[in-house]
């Protein structure tokens, strides 16, 4: 398939350039030569690490093969832009971008090689002229005839002027280039061909040639033709001296490179503009932003609105990418209407746009722009037969340029856009350094967490579960801590959510379970039947792991811990689903003798009747219930009645009840009176190292009396 595609492309290429240049090749030889160049271009496009530079050599090879006509490069570029993306459709997601950069490199290589070839031709003409002036008399006629032939037939323009700049003679190529007759040229002086934007160095070099300080110089210069049209040329100006070395006249050699300049401008525009919306693209925006930072003064301020369309993927999925493209074009047009002269709007890719505000007056100006954007997007957009409602989430950053780099500004805008989307979409968020610091800490922790388990940075502490009837230590809850090398000792509230998001909760939970069972077995060996059972939290994601039962079984077998010494805690939401897998796993664990407790009960469904169908052995009441029982004289009768009802119903289901968050003796008294079985909280002890638990076991003092 690839071979046929490339062969077809080579034939199309040959058809396109035939007649634009004189190439000493037959049709089959021409196709074969262009097929070789096609192979090089396609291989460059398909390379894993794309590099457009090989195309520069292909451009040079075209010139070397005499493809030097004025239409050759233009037709080649059009063919590349139209056919190569079609050939590569489905093979490369960024085929259009690669082809654009490849075309630019080819054009650059072609232009460079053509310039070198022209300079060589110019030098040959100059040498022929000098030889004609130096030849001895017997060869003068032959040399002058040779020069006249070169002068007349040359493809490049040639003008001869005296040392005052008066034009004496021009060749046919120059007359065609400028559309002046020979007589019109002879009435003009070289200095009349000044372009308003000529660099001063061009005319300084010209004066130095005319005065004899320089023999020649090369430059790229613009001219106006007789009809006022602008042309670009490669210009070589040379001084011709007499036999004794005295300056005699000046020769200018010019090649018309206007078409190459236009092509280069078109390629550059394509490289820096989004082909769909015609807005500046990410590359142009980055260059512009870097320039702003490079040129701005110390008091200069800058603002960004970084926006992302809400639900754009749904438009593509429901209506198709063509409709999505139409929507993007309409949005781009509305955003452009929003912007003033100090504002640049660019498409960053996909459905992301950014608006840069140079020299902003403060955050209020950029917030006002964000509100204008929301307003201009509010009217429905007509796309085909559909009217679509468009909303956007916008991240806003505004600050002095001295407070950040361009990269830091974009990072802040990206983060703030994420906040806007996370906060509910169809809104804007303003950059907050303190929130950003928290988010960066969060990202740092998230990145470090997978390796932290392997580096053994986690530790387990244990909080007593105390019988309210006699203050005996019946069990302990295992609570994991992270000894982070930078942030110090972190509680589970800092990282458990991240562990669940990243999936690290599964290996971390397995590690906590293994360490806790090992510790429980050591206590069992040391204290016998007085040893506490260990209660380990099980995250919802762990419950849905197919290997959960096998992991628990292996850990119990490896540590030699009796299943009755292990309790697994789960939240209500984790166990109230209808999925058969988690329920079957809990049933199997319960049948092994492992205790199953519902943690933070009362914050979720609180469906006691549903618990009858689950293999649950105990409930742990959320700490909010104990808050209303903090002082006996201010007891919240509503909380008291709720706790009494929950305890009664739980006991009716043969479940034990543990109250969390106990901090006062009054709470212990009320909960004991309500027949709550156990308690947990700072009143008894905080989470502590295993050695502290062992000291409590050795002291054998009722914990309710030593708070």
Describe this structure as you would to a colleague.
The structure is a single chain. The protein is of the alpha/beta class and about 700 residues long. The strands form four sheets. It has an eight-stranded mixed barrel with strand order 13-14-16-17-18-19-20-21, surrounded by five helices. A five-stranded antiparallel sheet has the order 2-1-5-4-3, sandwiched between helices. A five-stranded mixed sheet has the order 7-8-6-11-12, sandwiched between helices. About 35% of the residues are buried.
Category from helices, strands and their pairing: alpha/beta
How many DSSP-defined strands? 21
Overall outline: elongated
The whole-number mean of residue pLDDT values reads 85
Low-confidence segments, given as residue ranges, are none
Count of helical segments?
27
Task: Determine the oligomeric state from the structure.
Answer: single chain
Helix content: 40-55%
DSSP strand content: 15-25%
Could you describe the largest sheet, including whether it forms a barrel?
8 strands, mixed, barrel
User: Numbering strands along the chain, what is their spatial order in the largest sheet?
Assistant: 13-14-16-17-18-19-20-21
Q: What is the terminal separation in angstroms?
A: 82 Å
Radius of gyration: 41 Å
């Amino acid at each position: 398939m690839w071979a046929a595609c490339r062969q077809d492309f080579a034939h199309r290429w040959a058809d396109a350039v035939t007649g634009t240049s004189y190439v000493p090749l037959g049709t089959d030889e021409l196709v074969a030569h262009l097929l070789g160049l096609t192979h090089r271009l396609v291989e460059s496009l398909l390379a894993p690490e794309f590099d457009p530079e090989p195309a520069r050599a292909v451009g040079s090879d075209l010139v070397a093969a005499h493809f030097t006509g004025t239409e050759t490069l233009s037709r080649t570029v059009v063919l590349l832009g139209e056919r190569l993306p079609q050939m590569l459709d489905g093979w490369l997601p960024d085929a259009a971008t690669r082809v654009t950069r490849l075309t630019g490199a080819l054009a650059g290589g072609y232009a460079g090689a053509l310039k070198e070839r022209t300079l060589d031709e110019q030098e040959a003409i100059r040498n022929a002229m000098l030889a004609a002036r130096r030849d001895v008399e017997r060869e003068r006629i032959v040399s002058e005839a040779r020069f006249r032939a070169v002068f007349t037939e040359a493809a490049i323009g040639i003008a001869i002027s005296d040392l005052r700049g008066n034009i004496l003679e021009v060749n046919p190529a120059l007359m065609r280039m400028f559309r002046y007759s020979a007589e019109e040229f002879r009435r003009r002086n070289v200095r009349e061909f000044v372009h308003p934007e000529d660099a001063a160095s061009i005319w300084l070099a010209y004066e130095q040639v005319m005065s004899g300080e320089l023999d020649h110089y090369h430059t790229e210069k613009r001219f106006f033709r007789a009809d006022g049209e602008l042309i670009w040329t490669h210009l070589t100006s040379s001084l011709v001296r007499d036999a004794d070395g005295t300056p005699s006249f000046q020769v200018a050699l010019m090649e018309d490179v206007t078409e190459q300049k236009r092509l280069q401008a078109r390629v550059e525009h394509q490289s820096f503009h989004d082909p769909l919306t015609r807005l500046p693209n990410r590359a142009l925006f980055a260059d512009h932003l870097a320039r702003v930072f490079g040129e701005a003064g110390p008091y200069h301020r800058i603002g960004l609105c970084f926006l992302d369309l809400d639900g754009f993927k749904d438009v593509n999925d429901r209506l198709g990418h063509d409709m999505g493209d139409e929507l993007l074009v309409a949005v781009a047009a509305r955003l452009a209407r929003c912007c003033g002269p100090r504002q640049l709007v660019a498409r960053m890719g996909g459905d992301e746009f950014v608006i840069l505000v140079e020299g902003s007056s403060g955050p209020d100006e950029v917030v006002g722009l964000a509100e204008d954007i929301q307003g201009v997007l509010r009217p429905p957009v007509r796309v085909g037969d559909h009217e679509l409602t468009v909303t956007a989430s916008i991240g806003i950053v505004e600050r002095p340029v001295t407070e950040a780099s361009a990269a830091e500004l974009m990072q802040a805008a990206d983060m703030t856009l994420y906040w806007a989307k996370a906060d509910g979409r169809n809104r804007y968020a303003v950059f907050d350094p303190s929130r950003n610091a928290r988010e960066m800490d969060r990202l740092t922790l998230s990145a470090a967490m997978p390796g932290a388990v392997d580096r053994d940075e986690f530790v387990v502490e244990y909080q007593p579960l105390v019988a309210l009837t006699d203050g005996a230590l019946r069990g302990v809850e295992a609570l994991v801590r992270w000894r982070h090398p930078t942030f110090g000792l972190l509680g589970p509230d800092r990282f458990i959510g991240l562990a669940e998001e990243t999936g690290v909760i599964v290996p971390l939970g397995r590690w906590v379970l293994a360490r806790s069972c090992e510790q429980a077995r050591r206590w069992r060996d040391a204290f016998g039947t007085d040893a506490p059972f260990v209660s380990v939290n099980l995250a919802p994601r762990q419950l849905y792991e197919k290997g959960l039962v096998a992991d628990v079984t292996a850990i119990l077998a490896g540590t030699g811990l009796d299943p009755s010494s292990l309790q697994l805690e789960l939240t209500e939401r984790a166990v109230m689903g209808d999925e058969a897998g988690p329920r079957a796993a809990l049933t199997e664990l319960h049948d092994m003798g492992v205790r199953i407790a519902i943690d933070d009960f009362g914050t979720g469904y609180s469906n006691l009747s549903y618990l009858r169908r689950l293999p649950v052995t105990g409930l742990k009441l959320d700490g909010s219930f104990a808050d209303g029982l903090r002082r006996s004289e201010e007891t919240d009768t509503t909380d008291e009645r709720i706790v009494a009802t929950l305890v009664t119903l739980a006991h009716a289901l043969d479940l034990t009840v543990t109250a969390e968050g106990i901090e006062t003796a009054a709470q212990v008294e009320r909960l004991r009176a309500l027949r709550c079985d156990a308690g947990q909280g700072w009143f008894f002890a905080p989470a502590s190292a295993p050695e502290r638990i062992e000291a409590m076991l050795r002291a054998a003092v009722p914990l309710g009396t030593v708070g």
